[in-house]
Amino acid sequence: MLCQICNKKTATIHLTEITNGLRSEMHLCEYCAVEQGIAAKSQVSINELLSGLLAVQPSDEEMFGPSEEKKSCPICGFALDQFRKEAVLGCPNDYEFFENALLPLIEKAHNGKTSHCGKIPSRMPQEAKEQIKLANLQQQLDVAVRKEDYEEAARLRDKIKQLES
Amino acid sequence: MKLTDISNDINEWFNGSGPLSDIVVSSRIRLARNLAGHKFLSRCSTTEKSEILTKLKEVLMSLDLGDKIFYISVDKTSNLNRDFLVERHLISRHHAAGRGPRGVVIARREFFTAMINEEDHLRIQVLKAGCQLSKCYEQINHIDDMIEQKIGFAYSPRFGYLTACPTNLGTAIRCSVMLHMPALKMTGQIEKFFHAARDMGLAVRGLFGEGTEAASDLYQLSNQISLGVSEEAIVSEFENTIIPEIVEYENAARKELLSKQVDTLDDKISRAMALLQSAHLISSHEALFLLSHLRLGINMCERMGATTPALKRLRDLAELPRDKSGKGADEDKGLSITTINRLFMLTLPAHLQLNYGKPLDPTHRDALRAQIIRSALNKET
Fold this sequence. Notes:
The complex is a heterodimer of chains A (165) and B (381). Chain A is mainly α and 165 residues long. Chain A has helices at 30-35, 46-55, 60-64, 66-69, 80-86, 94-97, 99-109, 126-146, 150-164; strands at 13-19, 22-28. Chain A has a two-stranded antiparallel sheet with strand order 1-2. In chain A, helix 8 runs antiparallel to helix 9 (150-164). The termini of chain A are far apart. Helices cover 47% and strands 15% of the residues of chain B. In chain B, a hairpin with a 5-residue loop joins strand 4 and strand 5. The longest helix of chain B is centred in the middle third of the chain and has 30 residues, at 231-260. The two termini of chain B are 32 Å apart. Classes of the chains: A mainly alpha (165), B alpha+beta (381). At the A-B interface, helix 2, helix 7 and helix 8 of A face helix 5, strand 6, strand 7, helix 7 and strand 9 of B.
């Protein structure tokens, strides 16, 4: 398909816009898309992408399921429809309280990852640190097995064994 | 400590030194943290925000960073000061435009800043000249440890450091480098860089000016994924895989200019020299655009030993040492990368006005900017 503006280059950017229920499509080459200020969209941050993603969702019910929709966090009073507007949460407890609803978003933002692997606060007791490390390794192992990456799985299994002994 | 104490020169990390500094201008790592036992800022009352600010300010001001530290109350300072802090990359635009009690702690040499009550309660960053991400991480990790000795952060074993936005969750780390990519733009290949960045899951943002295609050809490249990968792995991938690949794109474009598009290169360099040497009114946008070409020219002379007709004239103008081993020997003499970087920063609107001592309308700013650039470029004045 050729770009509908210059009619010369191949259209690689396809834009569907729905305004007041009317659907319109645009097929542009990269050059014309930049001219039109459309290709700049390829540079949006994940933040914007997330809120954009949320904005096109038809309803909270479809997105989070009926049970999650009306819940609000007992600590901060935050509800999920606010997340749709602001793209930020109300308090640390929201991660636990809305875990089911947030997990797909977290997974999308972090390339399929859903558990921390990295710094553990230095003030944590040694025992807790080791438990966290172990839990994280176990989670990584599950992912590796699911992806059938057996080389990585074997490496993680050895690490877990080492930590347990 | 007043802002005018730092406004008349560039900061250390912008002085054009460091590894790969012809392309990688500076490196930055920031960590996002929130205090345990407090709500995120979107749900905080002004009183709670003040409480967080007081706690964090006290902890930060007591840190031993091997440098003087000072605090600026971002909500109480003037608009001009806020713009200055943004121009200098000491606070984000978001922080400048925010609401409620908020502030920033800055090390005098500007290698460290801590924004309090931005999107998260605390965002600390370390900046260094050139490509030095692992050194940045080493330092910020140490500072983070020192802060954690005194105050507890919101952390979950499952998700790591808890941030207001789930996109920062986990390590809550953002690695960024400031890249100068003029040759990719001149050869019409800047899209290649955007695509490569996107394919590697990285964010690109234009610096010094609005929009992704920055007039200055300076871009910020940052990681987006912060969960499920360790800090060390993120930093190492950035420093050892991503940056060399991107730097190679720009280097290839520079070689292409020299081998196949000398006229394009010489035209840009000559125009930049002529306009900057003689303009009496120059907008910030035009100045950034032209200074970028001079920066490229000087780097091509110094690093690649290039000798096209325009570059020879630039070499004479800049009084660059002909002996390459004499690099850095006469930094204050002639026109060096440091001088160009200084002109980049000191001719930005808020810098101009702060150094002038009072607000100026755009025409007066354009005149003052042109004058500063002319006197740096013309030997006789």
